[in-house]
Amino acid sequence: MCFVASAGRRAKRGVTTSEARSHDDATPGPRPIAPRPSTAVAKLGPSRSRVVSPEQPTELLPRLGRSHSQERVSVTTSSIPSAVFVGIDVSKLQLDVARSDHDGLQSYPNDPTGIHRIIEALQTITLGTVVVESTGGLERPLVDAMLDAGLPVALVNPGQIRHFAKALGILAKTDAVDAHVLMEFARKAAPRLAMKRSKIQVELDALVTCRRQLLQSRTEQSNRHQSTVNTSARKAIQAVLKTLDKQIASLNDQIARLIESDDDLSHRNQILRSVPGVGPVLGATLLAELRELGDTGRREICALVGVAPFNRDSGRFKGKRSIRGGRAAVRNVLYMATITAIRSNPVIKAFANRLREAGKPSKVIIVACMRKLLSILNVMIREDIPWDQLKIVKNA
């Protein structure tokens, strides 16, 4: 009886029973409010992007009343806002562009022609922020071209975007959904804007990344060599190890020559290498993969690397603080350098001894020393002073 009455009321509103059932099966939640026009404008600051917005919209992505409403995400606006936010989903063959000023999705080929067409279209509007998801290097031609054109683009972590989508109640994952989620992330999260890299910086990043990948392959082959008993197989693995060692040594020479060829990189590398415990590998890694070093504060640089402790409290429960996230490649190299610094660096060694006398566990001591060493390096690069002058300033 109740079903008949409900169906009758829906029929009076012009909604069929099948459509109503499809709406009832859709993702539950409050009816979203249409986005209001926003005057947010992204600004590139010294360390991160800032968004000045008198009215920050808090509504979620609108959902359609369909049985699979998350397969299409549309944004309805009453008028074109002054700043347009853009999300671009990158695949091997296609670039899907979602804009906050209309509902549709625009697709372009992932080639120089398609990238040029996207840039031309974005240069004709008042642009807020463009968000592109990191996809293992497929996004680099697009991001570099947009930076060359002077467009505000942010390169974000895919895991962060996925968590953002789940927070909005979006569980489906398609190219269209991802593009609209990236657009909404650009509008609400104010991500850090990417910085244009010089040609030598791009080359250094590629060499350091290649060296790290070869080291990982060498570790894998070395582990296989230890567990292999067949003579022929062991000889084959030994040949691979010999080739990897030769290539790694060649990359070390190329990285050193590249750093020496640039005055700025060479000067920063000399400052880093003046610290006891900092070797050529850590110096090159910081120069290539932590360009924010010296331009940010102590807490932020530690969070970027992933050595900042985060609270885990709720009500009366006080959990242990732990590190999470960050750039694992930088953190791994910093770990090995810190082990050396605990033995050879007088400041880090004294700090580790104080923590040890206080009864701190070994891993806590190492992470704390990693954080202290990174903070010291950050100050030295920011103030442009080597290790000896830093000690004089501290003693003064």
Task: Count helical runs.
Answer: 15
CATH class descriptor of the largest domain: Alpha Beta
Task: State mean pLDDT (0 to 100 scale).
Answer: 81
Going across the biggest sheet, name each strand in turn: 5-4-3-6-7
Based on DSSP secondary structure assignment, what is the total number of beta strands? 9
Topology of this structure?
Layout (H helix, E strand, L loop, with lengths): L1 H11 L4 H9 L15 E4 L4 E4 L31 E7 L3 E6 L5 E5 L2 H11 L4 E7 L6 H9 L4 E4 L1 H10 L7 H14 L10 H29 L3 H31 L1 H11 L6 H10 L8 H8 L7 E2 L2 E2 L9 H17 L1 H12 L4 H22 L3 H9 L1
Parallel strand pairs: 3-6, 6-7
Antiparallel strand pairs: 1-2, 3-4, 4-5, 8-9
Gist of the model:
By secondary structure, the chain is an alpha/beta fold. It has 3 domains: 31-188, Nucleotidyltransferase, domain 5, CATH 3.30.420; 197-261; 275-396, no CATH class. The protein has helices spanning 2-12, 17-25, 112-122, 140-148, 158-167, 175-188, 199-227, 231-261, 263-273, 280-289, 298-305, 328-344, 346-357, 362-383, 387-395; strands at 41-44, 49-52, 84-90, 94-99, 105-109, 127-133, 153-156, 313-314, 317-318.
Description of the molecule:
This protein is an alpha/beta fold and 396 residues long. It folds into three domains: 31-188, Nucleotidyltransferase, domain 5 (2-Layer Sandwich), CATH 3.30.420; 197-261; 275-396, no CATH class. Helix content is 54%, strand content 10%. The protein has helices at residues 2-12, 17-25, 112-122, 140-148, 158-167, 175-188, 199-227, 231-261, 263-273, 280-289, 298-305, 328-344, 346-357, 362-383, 387-395; strands at 41-44, 49-52, 84-90, 94-99, 105-109, 127-133, 153-156, 313-314, 317-318. A five-stranded mixed β-sheet has the order 5-4-3-6-7. The protein has a two-stranded antiparallel ribbon with strand order 1-2. The radius of gyration is 26 Å and the shape is globular. Mean pLDDT is 81; it is low at 1-80.
